[in-house]
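During the second half of the funding period, the structural biology subgroup turned its attention to how the target accommodates small molecules. The most pressing case was pyridoxal-5'-phosphate, which had performed well in the primary screen but for which no bound structure existed. We therefore specified the complex as follows and requested a full 3D prediction, including the ligand pose.
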Amino acid sequence: MIYLNGHFMPIEEARIPVLDRGFIFGDGVYEVIPVYSRKPFRLADHLQRLQYSLDGIRLQNPHSDDEWRSLVERVIAGNESDDQSLYLHVTRGVAKRDHAFPKGVPPTVFIMSNPLLTPPQELLAAGVAAITANDNRWLRCDIKAISLLPNVLLRQMAIDAGATETLLLREGFMTEGAASNIFLVKNGILLAPPKNHLMLPGITYDVVLELAHGHQIQYEVREISEYEVRTAQEILLTSSTREIMPITLLDGKPVGDGKPGLVFEVLYQLYQNYKLTVMRGAGLKV
Ligand SMILES: Cc1ncc(COP(=O)(O)O)c(C=O)c1O
């Protein structure tokens, strides 16, 4: 079951007019929220980032946080899996094609759910391959915009090369992955690029840094050079649906000893434990 503009329905019945600005211009923003045991993970953070993205494209938020919460809860209840990947999307609505914002047009609001498929143990045990590419996206990568054509092309480069993700380099520094945030480990220290307009402020990124902070794992948030990427002991990928994954091959060369490293193992376990405490509703930030 999905939600579209005030109605709940099977996805097969959902229709939007061809003049929707999401379809015509990619004029909208979105969120992907993982749901574990029917509880949305870090929903408050996702709704805060949604507001930031809406502000970034100058679109009024059609709902209060409480309204979003209740819509999200109803979509979760209307789908089979206990673990779900919720996709929430707002566009600037339907109007005659014109770049300028339309006046008095209600936004299109869409929420769907798919079963959440987190990475299988075999993949976590072996790690995945990644390639590097020039980050040729726009300069507002901090907005979670639905216009993802550069990300689509960059991610497909990885798939074509038999890899899982593309690490993006801009002017000698690493920004993020085509659909993920990236961390390195150098001299046993976890390194994270600083949040700015060149990367999406990942919710999983925040969780990883909180876990590192709370468990005395040494970390630094600073710019990361291409050289550091190529000589890293470990490279980690994070996203809401892929959680934390080790990258063990970069541009065909092993990362460190070519196996998932200690920092990955520790963070992965901390993340799983954190998920459990959140699911049990232990009063932590959800
Ligand atoms: C470009 C990009 N960066 C980072 C992320 C990770 O963000 P989050 O941890 O909030 O899923 C994503 C998520 O899909 C993404 O598309």
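Two results from this model are relevant to the next phase. The two ends are 24 Å apart (CA to CA). The mean pLDDT is 97.
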